[in-house]
Amino acid sequence: MSDSKEPGERLQKVLSRAGVASRRHVESLMNAGRIRVNGQVVSELGTRVDISTDLVELDGTALQLDIDRRYVLLHKPTGLVTSLSDERGRPDLQYVVDEIGERLFPVGRLDFDSSGLLILTNDGEAANILAHPSFGVEKTYRVTVSGAVSNKTLGTLTTGVDLDDGRVHADEVKRLSEPRGGTSILDITLHSGKNRIVRRMCEAVGHPVQTLQRRRFGPFHLGGLKPGQWRDFTDKERHQLATLVQLASSSANSGDTP
């Protein structure tokens, strides 16, 4: 935390600019003891902070205060490459970046034939925490698979499937409907970052994937976005991400993650 002689800005100004609350409301929050900076309750109205180094929390929730960081949710359609260019000339993410008007990069990947939630950002630290399996950020995929999936097979997906590159398991599997037309619909949640992992797991238990859509990435949901549509994170989502980054960083510093 900065004092008046060090670099930084008044806390009220920083929180107001980030859309947390008006300056007057921020003062009320400070007086109520609801704001912490670097773990300490602050009530002094002249408090200054440096958004590049100070951790600011409201009611225990970390706040994302750097307005230069951009976070976008995209409903990636099928038939789109998850990169900013493709040497084979296939449709890629460049059209989204052009619409946004800022150079952002995708967090992780979705297969060419898969659809669903994709996050784009210019925040490298957050992207690494979201994408790296060591941080355990869960993702949920809705898949249509061939055949009627038995309870035993559901159990196999959660206890573990042996693949060429090792044993993997889903964190949770839900069957959403009884089989119709020779297919079943499942929601599969896992945190593995292996390539085409959901498709390979389903193939291994005898139920090839016909369609795959990512519905959730950590605390972020696809919602009502239609294929090809995108939107910026809400303030709530920015703060959810800040909390996720804070927890992951704390775990890494304590040696809980590789």
Describe the structure.
Helix content is 26%, strand content 27%. With 258 residues, the chain is of the alpha+beta class. The protein has 2 domains: 1-67, Roll (Structural Genomics Hypothetical 15.5 Kd Protein In mrcA-pckA Intergenic Region, Chain A); 71-233, Pseudouridine synthase. Strands 7, 8, 9, 10, 13, 14, 15, 16 and 17 form a 9-stranded mixed beta sheet that branches. Strands 3-2-5-6 form a 4-stranded antiparallel beta sheet. Strand 11 (161-163) and strand 12 form a beta hairpin. The model has no long low-confidence stretch (mean pLDDT 89).
Radius of gyration (Å):
21 Å
CATH topology of the largest domain: Pseudouridine synthase
Strand content: 25-35%
Number of domains: 2
The total count of strands amounts to: 17
Order of helices and strands: EHHEEEEEEHEEHEHEEEEHEEEH
Q: What are the defining features of this structure?
A:
258 residues; alpha+beta; Structural Genomics Hypothetical 15.5 Kd Protein In mrcA-pckA Intergenic Region, Chain A; Pseudouridine synthase; 2 domains; nine-stranded mixed beta sheet; four-stranded antiparallel beta sheet; 17 strands; elongated
Summarize this structure briefly.
By secondary structure, this protein is α+β, with helices and mostly antiparallel strands. Helices cover 26% and strands 27% of the residues.
SSE topology:
Elements lengths: L8 E2 H7 L5 H9 L3 E3 L2 E2 L6 E2 L6 E3 L2 E2 L8 E6 L17 H7 L4 E2 L8 E7 L2 H8 L7 E8 L4 H9 L1 E3 L2 E3 L3 E4 L7 E8 L6 H8 L4 E9 L2 E2 L8 E3 L2 H20 L4
Parallel strand pairs: 9-15
Antiparallel strand pairs: 1-4, 2-3, 2-5, 5-6, 7-9, 7-17, 8-9, 10-14, 10-15, 11-12, 13-14, 15-16
Helix pairs in contact: 1-2, 4-7
